[in-house]
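[09:14] KT: can someone run the structure on this one? pasting the chain below
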Amino acid sequence: MEHALRVTARRCIGTIAAAVITMIVLISGGLPALAQEPLKIRIGWAQMPGHMIPVLYLKPEILKHYGKSYTVEPILFRGSTPQLTAMATSEIDMGAFAPLALALAVQKANLDVKAVADIIQDGLPGYHSDSFFVRKDSGIKSVLDLKGKRIGMNAIGSAADTAMKTMFKKQGPLEQRDYTLIEASFPNIPIMMEEGKIDMGPVLQPFHEQLLATGRYEVLFDARAALGPVQFVFLAARTDFLEKNRKVLYDFFEDHVRAMRWFADPKNHDEAVKIIANFTKQKPEDLQYLFTKNDYFRDPFLFPSVTGIQSMADACFDTGLISDKLQVAPKYVDLSFVEEAKRRIEADGH
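[09:31] RB: done, structure tokens below
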């Protein structure tokens, strides 16, 4: 009896030891562990089709890693500064930031945030630039004529807001007390001008060409005149999120760049426009400007313009949107993800 108990005890100890060893091996990666759930990446965006984020993952056959190592949840915001608040409270992992949002993240929210990829660049020669429209019969012919007027803006601190305030300083000065600012989404700004609720506002494509075609509107100024070539919006993320998930994010950025290159490829233009038209509920014929010189410039491998971010950050300081200058590079930029994406894509011969 005593011998049997000793044998049973040895067997129990052996079983426990084997279980412990197996657990250690699994943790160390020696044996295949249970499959992990794909990382869900929550990404903020504010306007379509400029930001492109909500449609880049709608064609899975061009994505190598979607659903395997990661998935994406696009989350709509009115502008980039509301995304800053969401990032500070960990409601999003990445966001479509204007340079002011980066500056505020660093200087006010004390976040370690980095610009990681291009979204849209404004003011490059030969490409579209966001424009500020007025009615031809409004009597507004200069910035100073906007005194006492109502101005529409998607969000205070957005890229468009920075461009406007820079121009107000150049051609005014026109201070914030001199006009009434009304926040409204970009698609609503042309409607509000038509209804007489605002006197000026930034008009994006495709409404830019549509308003000009009516003959009732004209451009008072554009962002290029205010700022020159700049990085209007870029993909930003907290450094701790980037470092914690670096391996998976290499997969994500490979697909992200791959998808953007597919949409921008002229041979895919008709299908790309159809996908975007279905998402935005617009007519494909109104979106023919996409990925042409009438659209924003986007880097072929989504490298953000660091000098363009710096120029915008300097403009934010000059107009009083931030109280201290921000030195963007090298601390607040990480190009390693788009560099790896480019390496992988070119290795595949694309």
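[09:33] KT: thanks! Strands lie at 39-45, 70-76, 94-97, 113-122, 131-135, 150-153, 180-183, 201-203, 217-222, 230-238.
[09:34] RB: yep, looked fine to me
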